[in-house]
Amino acid sequence: MSEGVYENTDGFEDNKSNAMKNTDIDGQLYGNVRAFKPRPRDGVVASEPDSSGKRLFLVAAVCLGLLCVLLLAGIIGLSVYYNRAINDSEDKRNSLFQSFSLYKINATEERDQLQTRYNNLTEEKGHIQAKLFVMEQHCQEGWRYFDSKFYFLSTEKKTWKQSRQDCLDRGADLVVINSREEQTFVFNLHLRAWIGLNDSVTEGIWKWVDGTPLTTGYWAAEQPDDSGQEDCAEIYYGQDDPVKTWNDDKCGTNHNWICEKEE
Ligand code: CA
Ligand code: CA
């Protein structure tokens, strides 16, 4: 069988020995190897068998590094964005809190002002109700109201001294006329009545019942004339001029009278 391997295709047997045949085959194989494997001495530079693998590894490492850098940049960017969003959120929350605090302070002040105003109005309402009660009571007793004063018109007639005592008993006194307006008001009561003025202490020196001297008098024409020692003053309705209506008369004469008292 082994001999058939060295048979020629033309069917003739080779006359060389087997050793020689093997030598020839080895030489032929070596020649073929030399033909396919260049060597440095042949003028061809041989490349390293694993250099392309290193290059691929290097590229992969670079790509991985770039990816890491990109990921790191992304994480940093997200962190900055997140921190900025948190800061903005805190700023808005602080701003809202300050606005709410300010609103709360204003609301509290406004509530206190309204409460104070309500208390004042309640107190004022109480005063008005009390005042209305007093006014109603005085009106029922025959008093008139003018410029924060009450005036009582008598229906009886008495002397000046008796008239004053009646006023004192009512917690008042004979009327003291301090102004033109008050004079007109008293004149329009349509009475001939005693007023709280006399010159009993010193003739010609007229004084009011509250001790003040007369400064402005509304005497009728040619009065006071002290005709027969007239030391007490009366207002005399029926004169043409409402500010010229006073007369001095004898204090023992009986007249109506007008009391006055504070509100
Ligand atoms: Ca008066
Ligand atoms: Ca007179």
Describe, in plain words, how this protein is organized in 3D.
This protein has 263 residues and is α+β, with helices and mostly antiparallel strands. Among the domains are: 46 residues; 120 residues, Roll (Mannose-Binding Protein A, Chain A). Helices cover 50% and strands 13% of the residues. Strands 1, 2, 3, 4, 5, 6, 7 and 8 form an eight-stranded mixed beta sheet that branches. The protein is rod-shaped. The relative contact order is 0.09. The N terminus is likely disordered. The protein binds calcium ion (CA) (2 copies). One calcium ion (CA) binds next to strand 7.
Fourth-level CATH superfamily of the domain at 143-262 = Mannose-Binding Protein A, subunit A
Number of helices: 5
Average predicted local confidence, pLDDT: 85
Enumerate the spans where pLDDT stays under 50 for 5 or more consecutive residues: 1-16
Q: Name every ligand kind in the structure.
A: calcium ion
Q: Assign a percent range to the helix content.
A: 40-55%
CATH topology of the domain at 143-262: Mannose-Binding Protein A, Chain A
Which descriptor suits the 3D outline? rod-shaped
- The strand count comes to 8
Q: What is the CATH-assigned architecture of the domain at 143-262?
A: Roll
Strand content: 5-15%
State the CATH class of the domain at 143-262. Answer: Alpha Beta
